[in-house]
Amino acid sequence: xxxxxxxxxxxxxxPADEAQEFYDRExxxxxxxxxxxxxxxxxxxxxxxxxxxxxVLPLGTSPEPLIISLAVWRPRRVLLLPTAQSRPLVxxxxxxxGLSEEQVDVREVLPNDPLPLYTEIRNAxxxxxxxxxxxxxxxxxxxxxxxxxxxxxxxxxxxxxxxWGKERYxxxxxxxxxxxxxxxxxxxxxxxxxxxxFQAACAxxxxxxxxxxxxxxxxxxxxxxxxxxxxxxxxxxxxRAYEAWDLLQVGRAAQELEALEAGLDQHWRLPYLARLTxxxxxxxxxxxxxxxxxxxxxxxxxxxxxADLADAQLMCAVIGTLYQAALRREAAGRLDxxxxxWYRLLEVLEQSRLAALGLDTAKPDxxxxxxxxxxxxxxxxxxxxxxxxxxxxxxxxxxxxxxxLVAGYLLLAAVGQPLVLxxxxxxxxxxxxxxxIYAHGYSFVSEKNLRTFRSLAEEVLxxxxxxxxxxxxxxxxxxxxxxxD
Length: 485
Hints:
Blueprint: H1 4-13, H2 16-42, E1 54-59, H3 64-73, E2 77-82, H4 90-96, E3 104-106, H5 114-127, E4 134-137, H6 143-156, E5 159-164, E6 169-170, E7 175-176, E8 182-185, H7 190-206, H8 210-223, H9 227-246, H10 250-267, H11 274-277, H12 280-296, H13 306-309, H14 312-331, H15 335-356, H16 366-373, H17 377-390, H18 405-414, H19 423-434, H20 447-468, H21 472-476
Parallel strand pairs: 1-2, 1-4, 2-3, 4-5
Antiparallel strand pairs: 5-8, 6-7
């Protein structure tokens, strides 16, 4: 049997009116036999493995490169985009590429108008269920069709592939030297330009849009080759961790921060990781905090035990989470949500200090509290009413049950452990918060009111930290690390 080289030499010696038929019948099948296994191996494909789930291919008047491409990549679904002139070649492409009729969608487009081409690619993408793994072959069709297909590939995050035959192209025969055809995957520009998307992701994170930043980093990690994929993958981990923590999905946040730490252990020398490497201690403290929250906070709807509310380490993680979340919401301009978080922080501080005295604000046992303090119930009620009178409130006949926020701070003052020196200010500020549309009313929180409320909350927080012996730096460790320079 003649080899490809001998067949090629016979083909070149033939008259022009016989050469094309001989090429189609004898030479090109041998080209496929030689080129396809070689190129599949080069692309790391074995057996019947599909290189892509779907492929889009504009079809011009030279079908052979597309047949080679399809035979190499073996996609499961194909969109062929012929012009009116190349439409008769569709069946040959399908047959010689070994595709069934069910695998191939055919949509005719115009040679010099990209809009119908975009429409057909979009429609196929939606018919196919918006696949992740796809490619566009830009070998065939007019220059407009090739350029338009490439731009569509970029929009869909598909790879761009090409069959190269110009290295030894035989102009007089209008074919490459048989057997020299090569399948190429065009390098994604993100390998060079990914830093621009990286900067965009960092800008989103600086606006506290960690989900958006994570999406960009995930895409970069998937598309950029080599070390870049490792770097962007580690940043994507941080985005997922902060996104989860912001949603109070602390278990997932702990897993992502643990994986992030492992990635930094292995790849800390790579570019773009210096910012994270310099924050290793802070990231470790954050992982420890979310691990503690995941382990100790109830999964189901349930009150936290008094012993846990009195646990300074656990409460540091809870308070730090609320405190930093409130600051992020305020920085993002979400003032009403920030007010809710400052209010919740005040509740937690009051509940934790009363828990340290053994009092559960949901089911207060005042007899036990009075005994612990060496006082009588009557003394406790009298001291509580003194605090009420200082706020121009009428005395109570019994101690509050359950204990709301203001009542809790009155109790702390009554037992000599005040966290608020301006109880009237506390009542006024919490009352204003209650009128928020996110609380019980229909008004909006102004910047001025929020600043006043935050100042009060931070004053109470400072007194709490002093009382329980926690350094303020512990809360600062739980601030999300900055992504920008």
